[in-house]
Amino acid sequence: xxxxxxxxxxxxxxxxxxxxxxxxxxxxxxxxxxxxxxxxxxxxxxxxxxxxxxxxxxxxxxxxxxxxxxxxxxxxxxxxxxxxxxxxxxxxxxxxxxxxxxxxxxxxxxxxxxxxxxxxxxxxxxxxxxxxxxxxxxxxxxxxxxxxxxxxxxxxxxxxxxxxxxxxxxxxxxxxxxxxxxxxxxxxxxxxxxxxxxxxxxxxxxxxxxxxxxxxxxxxxxxxxxxxxxxxxxxxxxxxxxxxxxxxxxxxxxxxxxxxxxxxxxxxxxxxxxxxxxxxxxxxxxxxxxxxxxxxxxxxxxxxxxxxxxxxxxxxxxxxxxxxxxxxxxxxxxxx
Amino acid sequence: xxxxxxxxxxxxxxxxxxxxxxxxxxxxxxxxxxxxxxxxxxxxxxxxxxxxxxxxxxxxxxxxxxxxxxxxxxxxxxxxxxxxxxxxxxxxxxxxxxxxxxxxxxxxxxxxxxxxxxxxxxxxxxxxxxxxxxxxxxxxxxxxxxxxxxxxxxxxxxxxxxxxxxxxxxxxxxxxxxxxxxxxxxxxxxxxxxxxxxxxxxxxxxxxxxxxxxxxxxxxxxxxxxxxxxxxxxxxxxxxxxxxxxxxxxxxxxxxxx
Lengths: 336, 258
Description:
The complex is a heterodimer of chains A (336) and B (258). Chain A has 336 residues and is an all-alpha fold. Helices cover 72% and strands 1% of the residues of chain A. Chain B has ten helices and ten strands. Chain B has helices at residues 44-51, 74-80, 97-102, 113-118, 121-140, 156-168, 186-202, 214-220, 238-243, 245-252; strands spanning 4-15, 18-29, 33-37, 59-64, 67-68, 82-84, 174-178, 206-210, 224-228, 231-236. Chain B starts with a strand and ends in a 6-residue tail after the last helix.
């Protein structure tokens, strides 16, 4: 019984949250990796693009709610996603046309692109704060829980409860659908293959008749979809605050680089790797050991490796370790 | 006399202080196999880069079938039938050999985003046709056994063959071969020269090739153009080139007589 309790405890506080968080990071990391692969720069504006996309989804959700449309037990935000995606594609293409294209034509080096994306990050950040404000916004409606901790306890008779939030299930399902479609697209379709080819060897791709303008356009479209879906899922699960999206840039970049930058599958796994490391290292194992160890050996400290205040240090450490020992990532991306 | 397919007029290309092409003018005749030789640094590869759109010339004009293509992007030139291979073989490292070939043919239905998502029967059929063509090409070059190998794992010579295979995937008008024979063993070299001849005679490909192996050149090419210091030093048959004193001197590295 104690053993089961320990397992439920770990599932409730580590496995379920890490899968959710990992999916959200994975969606972000795939976006960053695609931009790096095709446009050849690390896009620092990505976190704030996610914030912008989520803001559009929130505004649309509010509008839908005001005219009395909802999805019942599902969050209304899912209905607002397509609008969010369309507008985010619009703004991505707008910034590509007005900003990035200029530097592409000048054949600027990648450092210039990074600085340009930093500038864009501040612009997007400001736009979001001006429109929706810097505060916390909760836009989750519909049923909060699929299973409450108390229900689980009653059901099983265990001491520990397993709570599953509906946002966690929605996140997982949406991520699986989005990623399956994406990997199908990249591996099986002609356009996806041309995209991979372009990312692999630009000169050769051009000489094989692949139109770079089209590849770049498609990349922005895909990236905008990922940013909107990822950002909205994160906002639904936690809450929306522009600053957290900026903060998430660090774990997202860590996930991208762990997986090998430019490699979408690597970024996908990288997201989960970072999420699991972050959550396992910041969880306090006191109760877990209480269940497993005999009474006289019970710990009297929290047994927490790192305080949750320092969770970003974990992403940062992963980033540094990978860059030192395996600069092209676990799944062989490009060396930066 | 056959028609002129590519005409290069007074092209100048400099890299900083270095003059790579210094008023280079030459013609490539339709359905010919034109060889380009010259000492290292004479601007051969730069000439290819300028013609195929990888580099923009500082001045001068390039015509293809009488149309100016001086500043055309290389992916557009591809659709006009102008293809090239690289001196140091390029490949899509992370794709298999057959995928490398299947990426090439431009403008099919699968290219359209919407179509590729719907994945109708037609696309599958086209995909199958392309795959068959790719296998034909690989068989032709005798590298069919490598079709599922990652291109990054191929040897230098095999990569050269893959480069050649790529040009065979579409109906090219003119193919620029940059040292296609370098690093390839003698038997394979014979295969390559046979395929070049066959493509030239059966399918009417025009070839323009840079090569250091003079035997290879003299077997295949007529005419041979000698470049030195960024401009044309001499043009003639392989025999004439061999007899020409200036050419011998420039190859021996004595410098060009002024």
